[in-house]
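On clarity, I found the account of how folds are encoded harder to follow than it need be. What matters is that the chain and its backbone geometry are given together, residue for residue. I therefore recommend that a typical entry be quoted early in the introduction. An entry of this sort, consisting of the sequence and the corresponding backbone structure tokens, reads as follows:
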Amino acid sequence: MDNFNLYAKYYDLLYTDKDYSDEASYIDALIKKFQDLETKSILDLGCGTGNHANLLSELGYTVDGVDIAPEMIERAKQKFSENNGLNFYLGDITKFNNEKQYDAVISLFHVLSYQNSNTDVLKSMQTAYNHLKPGGLFIFDYWYGPAVLTDLPQVRTKEIGNDEILVLRNATPKMHYNENIVDVNYAIEITDKVSHRTDRVNEKHSMRYFFKPELALFLEHFSFTKCKFYEWMTFTEPGSKSWNALTIAKKDI
């Protein structure tokens, strides 16, 4: 996962325009809507640099985050060192086990879509299941297949900067229809505004898109119940225009 260690250096800048606060409030609303018992503790699988975890902590939850990239975890610990309601672990979500159980497990920003094989999807869900208390909620988002195939991925360019650096990122997709995978090939240029030096990084992020029946089957394997499927940031069912979708499921009591 060396790509993610490189990516972490520019991660927060690239997603300055992402509304983490609204997203944390949405997760809070989902929990309050579907949880029968009071939810106090959350495990965040694939926490990145900890932005969702920190905001959920500010909403009153105790949050533990885990990520596979050492630099992501290091950055999260640095950013939120004064928040006693947060803990961060280095680990692979397909293997992670801290021998604790939580009221809710979340996995956001399409972490499940990075699990390309059925084996890794099942292992990730097993991790969530093992770390949930009976009656606990599993909440995760992903690329939604009907929308991906309706509105095919396009070449995209993003430019963003701060006082120190300018980042230019070109994304070129490659479809693998028989595997339900999109390879997103990133060409990133990072220019230092003082020295005018430009570094170049190439990365490939392989993203799996999912369909409702297959996710329902995966969740049924672990006896998750009361599964709901939504378009991201809404309480309506996903459709052919819903590139980002979310599922919430409950562990049997």
